[in-house]
Every structure is written in structure tokens, then in C-alpha cells.
């Protein structure tokens, strides 16, 4: 069933008028499963847009704060907020800088789901491009923002799949860093993300099963982390660190007996460029030996490489790295052992209002890092919004960030095995 909606506005730019200016913009909306019994859809949240304008060569669609482009006159989008909600969608038709815009309203029902809602078991020996994107290049400032030395590629040398890995539940995604000359770099790596294909916020458990077997020397690292999918409607893009970052797993060869779970955020709203001075972070370490926050809580670099198959090193076997993301806090865990609880707002347990702070407390007899971020500006509270997932390996790091400076004895190729990634809707 196709629903043709009336438009709430028609605005044009103030540029010169000529015969190439788009006109007669029409928009059709189809809500999946819509019927007389289900006027707002079948609960899948899927909406298909069809738009047409004379002289238009490009369409831009603003939907839930995300700006999307289309040259094919169609766009499919899936709403994920559970329940019945009203949404505004702005469609603009462009030609040579001139445009017209129309706004439509649509009401969509999304069924409430509990349990496993998204996963990739990596059993198909190829990357599912309906779920993942390859991310290539060298990132921010040419070093991924951390002083890394690697160039990420989409080659099978860096991203591959393998069956028969001991203790894996099935097939594995394999991300490998290599010591090789490629384009302008002496090291290569792999990274993938779910941007625009899968993003989640409060109310979800997000977990990956990973064996970082090759990460054994300083300068080698692997991360399972999240970056912002959503942004304020008043900006074209949200910059780091204003948009926040969640590091679920940050495992480096220079600290082989510990994992680090961290949130990153901004002190001030300066959303115009990459600004490290504006960067705040609160993290907690996990000891594989004691299954809690270590003592001392900051283990420091050293004790690498660990002996082969040392059970107290993260490289020796598969572990489940995840977060339980609640409305008021994020709980970081490894193998279901919580080691860092981060409160999103002022006034959580163990915290003092209005301050960013961190301490180690005993929770049910275990050492747990407790931290609080006090939301320093009104424009955006990053940990109240959806983020997409990233799996990435890297080489090097400046001033002991990420993996730290690469050491000569580091062994390559360095492979990490990802058994699966799963997302659950919590009750």
C-alpha cells in the first residue's frame, strides 16, 4: 500500500532563477506492511520513499538527523525506535546549486523486540556488505588520530575468513596487520564498521567474541569500539570528540595481561575541527587473571611478549568483550565479569554531582572502576544516542597512545580472530 502524504512546506533558495531550477517535487511513502489493520506498518519500521522533481539531478533527504543523498529517486530507511512515533522527513531536489524542499510527516510503528536482534557469526567466508563497510586509508591526520603507522585496506591479506579455528563457535573473521610496503606506508591493517547499517544506543547489550592471538608486542593492537551514528540536526557532521566514543575492547601488546574499556568525550562544544585539547576520557582496566579491575588500577606498559598460551594474557584464547548500555550507565564486561561502570549523568551511585571523576570501589566483593561524565554542554549528550560498531587492528602509536611505538622484535603478520558480534535488546 502506498501512502501519498501532503507536504508541510515548500521552500526555495534565494539564488537566481533559471530554467534548470527543480520544480514540482512530489514524494510517495510506502510503509512496509501497512494495511487497514496496521495503518502504521507491520512493526519492521521499514519505509520506502520515492521522489520526483523536474530538472532534479540530486536529492538530499534529512531523516532522524541523518543527511542522505540519492540520484535514483528512491530511498529505503528503517526506523528502530520501538513503539509508534511521528517523524518528519525533508526531501530536497537539487540542480547546479539550486533546490526546492518539501517536508512530510509519517507515523511508523516498530515492534518491541527482546533478545538477540542483530548478529554476524562470520560463517559465510565473505564480508556481509548489508551489515558492514570496509574502512580504508589512514584516517584523521594521516595516523588514525593516534600516531598509528598503518594503512587500512580492503584486501584479503588484511581482512579474510577462516574455518577450523580451535575453540571458535564456527567460522571466524580474521583481521591481520602486516609489515609490508603498500602505497605510502610500511604497515597495512584492516578495519570494518556498521555505519549507516547498524547502530544502537541505550537498552542494548553489544558484545563480540575475540581471540587477539597475534597481539603480543608493543606497537600491536586491536579494538572493538563505537562511534556516533546520530548528530544534532543543526550541524552537517559531528566531530570527535564532541560525538563521543566507546572503546569496548582495547587490547594492546604492550599491556598483554589487561583490557581497557573507555569512554571519550569533549570538555567544550567546539564542533569545527579535530581538537585533541578538547578531549576527555574515563577508562577502566580488566585483569584476565583476577577478572576485575587490577591493583594497581593502571598497570602500565611492560611484561611483553607473554609466554605462549599464558592463560593470564588476553592473546591466549577467546574472550567475550561487551557492554550493557542502560539509560543511566554503561557497564563494561569481559566474559560477564563487570570491571567498569560508567554513569552517563550526574548523581549515579558512587559519584559526586557535576564532576568527571573515577574511583575503584568494591561491588559484590570485586574491584570495579566507577566513573561519571557530567555532560558539559547542552548541544549534545553523546552517550544518550546511537553509535555504530567498529572492528580494527593497528600498528604503532604516538606517546604511548593505542599500541605505543612499534618495537623491533614485533612479529608479523599479526592476526586477530573474531568469532562473532551480537547485539541484544535488553528488557
From TrEMBL:
Annotated GO MF terms: hydrolase activity, hydrolyzing O-glycosyl compounds
GO biological process: carbohydrate metabolic process
Keyword Hydrolase: yes
Superkingdom, natural source: Bacteria
Positions of the GH16 domain: 85-427
Keyword entries, A-Z: Hydrolase
Family that this chain belongs to: Belongs to the glycosyl hydrolase 16 family.
PANTHER family: GLYCOSIDE HYDROLASE FAMILY 16 PROTEIN, GLYCOSYL HYDROLASE-RELATED
Listed name of the protein: Glycoside hydrolase family 16 protein
Amino acid at each position: 500500500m502506498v501512502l501519498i502524504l501532503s507536504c508541510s512546506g515548500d521552500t526555495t533558495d534565494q539564488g537566481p532563477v533559471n530554467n534548470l531550477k527543480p520544480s514540482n517535487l512530489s514524494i510517495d511513502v510506502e510503509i512496509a506492511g501497512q494495511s487497514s489493520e496496521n495503518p502504521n506498518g507491520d512493526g519492521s519500521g521499514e519505509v520506502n520513499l520515492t521522489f520526483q522533481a523536474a530538472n532534479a539531478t540530486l536529492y538530499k533527504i534529512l531523516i532522524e538527523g541523518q543527511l542522505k543523498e540519492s540520484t535514483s529517486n528512491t530511498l529505503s530507511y528503517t526506523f528502530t525506535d520501538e513503539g509508534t512515533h511521528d517523524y518528519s522527513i525533508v526531501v530536497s531536489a537539487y540542480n547546479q546549486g539550486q533546490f526546492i524542499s518539501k517536508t512530510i510527516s509519517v507515523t511508523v510503528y516498530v515492534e518491541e523486540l527482546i533478545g538477540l536482534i542483530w548478529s554476524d557469526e562470520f560463517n559465510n567466508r565473505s564480508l556481509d556488505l548489508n551489515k558492514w563497510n570496509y574502512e580504508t586509508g589512514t584516517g584523521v591526520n594521516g595516523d588514525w588520530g593516534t600516531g598509528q603507522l598503518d594503512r587500512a585496506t580492503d584486501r584479503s591479506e588484511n581482512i579474510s575468513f577462516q574455518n577450523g579455528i580451535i575453540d571458535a563457535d564456527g567460522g571466524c573473521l580474521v583481521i591481520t596487520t602486516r609489515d609490508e610496503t603498500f602505497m605510502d606506508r610500511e604497515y597495512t591493517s584492516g578495519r570494518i564498521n556498521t555505519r549507516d547499517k547498524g547502530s544502537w544506543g541505550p537498552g542494548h547489550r553489544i558484545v563480540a567474541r575475540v581471540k587477539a592471538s597475534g597481539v603480543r608486542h608493543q606497537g600491536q593492537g586491536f579494538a572493538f569500539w563505537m562511534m556516533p551514528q546520530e548528530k544534532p540536526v543543526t550541524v552537517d557532521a559531528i566531530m570527535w570528540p564532541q560525538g563521543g566514543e566507546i572503546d569496548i575492547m582495547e587490547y594492546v601488546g604492550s599491556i598483554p595481561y589487561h583490557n581497557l574499556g573507555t569512554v571519550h568525550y569533549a570538555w567544550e562544544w567546539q564542533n569545527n575541527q579535530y581538537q585533541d585539547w578538547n578531549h576527555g576520557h574515563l577508562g577502566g582496566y580488566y585483569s584476565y587473571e583476577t577478572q576485575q579491575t587490577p591493583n594497581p588500577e593502571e598497570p602500565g606498559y611492560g611484561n611483553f611478549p607473554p609466554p605462549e598460551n599464558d592463560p593470564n594474557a588476553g592473546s591466549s584464547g577467546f574472550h567475550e568483550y561487551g557492554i550493557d548500555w542502560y539509560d543511566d550507565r554503561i557497564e563494561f564486561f569481559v566474559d560477564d565479569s563487570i570491571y567498569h561502570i560508567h554513569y552517563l549523568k550526574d548523581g549515579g551511585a558512587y559519584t559526586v554531582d557535576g564532576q568527571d571523576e573515577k574511583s575503584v570501589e568494591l561491588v559484590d566483593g570485586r574491584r570495579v572502576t566507577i566513573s561519571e561524565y557530567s555532560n558539559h554542554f547542552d548541544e549534545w549528550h553523546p552517550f544518550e544516542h546511537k553509535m555504530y560498531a567498529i572492528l580494527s587492528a593497528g600498528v604503532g602509536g604516538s606517546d604511548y597512545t593505542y599500541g605505543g611505538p612499534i618495537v623491533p622484535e614485533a612479529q608479523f603478520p599479526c592476526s586477530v580472530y573474531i568469532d562473532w558480534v551480537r547485539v541484544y535488546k535488553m528488557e
